[in-house]
């Protein structure tokens, strides 16, 4: 992480702070560089796919979706504000950062929308605590179950590949729980250690089957599901690694992760939830302008990679919905280091199937230009997620977001 000045955030690695959560989830089987959390599995099913992309480090929503119609925005950011004349997809009040211009075809076809002034019910400026709160989405509960794991418990299908996290061996808190999920850095990482080209006679797998197939141990169902998962995933490995339709993901980590996600979708192995991370968005210093700084670089990676993802999927993209969110936003007023300190409200992006796109949603609270001014939250982020869940999967939002009554927003439509 370059130039991160939050000791708390710098100390958190995706592997480090989530390993404890992953270890608490049922039975885990580790093979190669992959972690699989499994229960007895049935055949894979196909259906809608939800991709959740987390912008780690608290992205500045006022830079990604600029409220150019609010004069306070320019007064509060004399050095780092995005000029109104250079915004894209601009209406009378909002516009997208120009480095998101690769997403314009999605906006123009009604498949990209933004929901501003979203966030947690109350401010939480701790990266660690806010990430966990957003991903649990069940305030006050002591249960270690994330909202995506609860979703997997409600949708048909029990494939061990139903939930997939593109990452380095551990999954985010949102996927943690009793339902099956898989975490791997790439498609080709999925293999049983020792069952490789040097084991030409297949002795490793035969030994494992002999040991586990007839055993009564509580680990036996996990091992059998592991065998099934590796077998099912051969369909993904057989999917061409070269992106389709001329899609160009670029060379960023996000591009590589979304390229893997597209390959999983095209493999049609029953995966219904995919998670990815992108960061570091913790820009206390050198957020920059359109000519330099980390915001323009990360916004370009975000726009390029997401556009390539839908190009790569082609018609399969008609079943895929992407949600982009961050743990909290940044302050309204720039600081002395051309950066922004921890804030509150933020923006969420919705792309793909079922999105009521080509417009900006939400109730704008207006900005104030004080040292500690925040973007106030007018829409609980769970209302956005609940509408995605109910529209795309037809499940009970009360089961996915316990003790929460979502607000009807109109950000999604029936497909």
TrEMBL record:
Pfam families in UniProt: DUF1501 (PF07394)
Coiled-coil residues: none
Recorded superkingdom: Bacteria
PROSITE patterns cross-referenced by the UniProt entry: TAT (PS51318)
PANTHER family attached to this UniProt entry: BLL7424 PROTEIN (PTHR43737), DUF1501 DOMAIN-CONTAINING PROTEIN (PTHR43737:SF1)
Protein's name in the database: DUF1501 domain-containing protein
Organism: Nocardioides aestuarii
């Amino acid at each position: 992480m370059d130039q991160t000045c939050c000791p708390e955030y710098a100390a958190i690695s995706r592997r480090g702070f989530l390993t404890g959560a992953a270890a608490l989830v049922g039975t885990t089987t580790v093979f190669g560089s992959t972690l699989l959390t499994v229960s007895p599995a049935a055949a894979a099913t196909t259906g809608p796919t939800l991709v959740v992309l987390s912008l780690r480090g608290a992205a500045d929503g006022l830079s990604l979706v600029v409220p150019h119609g609010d004069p306070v925005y320019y007064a509060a950011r004399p050095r780092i504000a995005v000029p109104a004349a250079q915004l894209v997809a601009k209406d009378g009040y909002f516009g997208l950062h120009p480095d998101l211009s690769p997403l314009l075809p999605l906006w123009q076809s009604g498949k990209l929308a933004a929901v501003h002034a979203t966030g947690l019910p109350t401010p939480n400026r701790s990266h660690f605590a806010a990430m966990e709160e957003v991903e649990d989405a069940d305030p006050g509960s002591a249960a270690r179950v994330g909202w995506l794991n609860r979703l997997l418990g409600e949708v048909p299908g029990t494939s061990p590949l139903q939930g997939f996290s593109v990452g380095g061996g551990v999954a985010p808190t949102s996927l943690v729980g009793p339902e099956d999920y898989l975490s791997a850095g790439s498609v080709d990482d999925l293999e049983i250690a020792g069952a490789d080209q040097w084991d030409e006679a297949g002795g490793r797998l035969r030994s494992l089957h002999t040991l586990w197939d007839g055993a009564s141990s509580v680990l036996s169902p996990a091992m059998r599901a592991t065998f099934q998962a590796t077998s099912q995933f051969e369909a993904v490995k057989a999917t061409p690694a070269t992106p389709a339709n001329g899609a160009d993901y670029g060379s960023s980590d996000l591009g590589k992760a979304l390229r893997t996600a597209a390959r999983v979708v095209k493999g049609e192995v029953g995966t219904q939830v995919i998670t990815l991370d992108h960061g570091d968005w913790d820009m206390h210093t050198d957020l920059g302008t359109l000519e330099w700084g980390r915001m323009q670089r990360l916004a370009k990676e975000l726009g390029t990679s997401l556009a390539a993802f839908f190009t790569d999927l082609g018609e399969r993209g008609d079943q895929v919905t992407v949600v982009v969110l961050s743990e909290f936003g940044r302050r309204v007023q720039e600081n002395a280091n051309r950066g922004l300190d921890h804030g509150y409200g933020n923006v969420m992006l919705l792309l793909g199937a079922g999105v009521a796109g080509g417009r900006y949603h939400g109730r704008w609270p207006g900005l104030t230009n004080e040292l500690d001014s925040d973007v106030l939250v007018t829409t609980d982020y769970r209302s956005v997620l609940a509408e995605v869940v109910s529209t795309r999967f037809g499940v009970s939002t009360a089961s996915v977001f316990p003790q929460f009554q979502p607000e009807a927003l109109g950000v999604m439509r029936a497909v």
